[in-house]
Write the C-alpha cells for this entry.
Amino acid sequence: MIAGIMNLSSSPHAMPVTPVDDGDAAPAPTATGQRATPVRQNPDLLAFATLVWNRFRRNPIFWLGIIALVAPTLYDVASRGWGTDQAAHAPIVFATAIWIFARSARRAAIVAVPPKAWAAALALAPPLLLYIAARVTGLMEVRGLAAYLAVVAVLYAVGGARTLGVLWFPILYSIFLIPIPDTFVDIATQPVKLGISKAVVGLLSNLGLPVATSGVSIYIGQFELLIAAACAGLNSLISLTAIGSFYVYLRHNASWRYTLLLIMMIFPIAVFANFLRVMILVLLTYYAGEAVAQGFLHEAAGLFMFVVSVLTIFLIDKVLTMIGTRMGWMTA
C-alpha cells in the first residue's frame, strides 16, 4: 500500500495533492510560484464557538443548568452594581474577558483532557452548595462568587487542569466582575482614608494654611470636608488593576510574573493619585468655596487623576521594559 502511494505520487499523470491548511502552516505555492493567501474568518471566535457548541451537544442538560445558574446572577449583579462608581469597570471587564476566552479557546481545546466524572462532580459540588446558601441568605456578593466558582468548575470538567492552565489569565481577570461587600470596603478603606487625611493636613499646614483633621474629616477655614470611601482610592485601585492587567496581557503575552510586578505598583499609584485629588479639592474649597469644589470640578478632578494614573502605569511599563530588554531578562 505504501509503495503504491509512492508510485502514484511520483507518476507524471498523478493528480496534484492539495495540502490541508492547519491554520498555522504557510500557504502552499500556486502554479505561478506565488503563495495563495488563505481566507480566514476570525479563527479565535470560530474555535471558541465550535468548542462551546460541541460540548453543549454532548450534554445539553448539564450546560442548560449552568446557564440557568449563571445568567440570573450575572443579570442581578449587572442591574444592581454596574451603574455605581464601585463597579463602573465591570462592563469593560466582562466584554474583554469574553474576548480573551475566545482568543485562548484554540489552545485550551488542544490541551484539553477532561477529568473523571467523580472529579468533575467533586469540583462542582462546593460552588453549588455555596450558591444555594447565598440564595437563602440573599447575599449578592456570595452569590456572585458561587457563580464564578461554578464557571471555573465547568471549565475544569470540560478540559481538565491543563485547560485551566491555559485560561489562567481570563479566569483571574474575571474576578473583577464579583461585587465587593460593603463591609470589606469599609474595613479596607478606613486606614487609607486616615492616612490620606493626615498627609494632606500635614502638607497644607506646613504651607501656612488653617487646616486640621479629626479622623477622616478635614477642617480648613470655616469648611469641613469628609473623606469618603471613593477618596481612599479603592474604586480606582480596582479599575486600575483591571486595566493594568489587561494591558500587560496584550503587551507582554500574559507573563504572570510581570503582571504581578505591575499590579504591586498600582496600589501606591492609586493612593498617591487620590492624595493629590483630596488636596486639590481642599484647596478649591478654601479658595473658591464649597459649591465650586463639590460641583463639576469634583468629578473632573477624579477623572483627571484616574487618567494620570493610567498614563503613569504605561510610563512605568515602558521604563521597566527598556531596563529588562537591556539586561536580557525581558523582550520588548
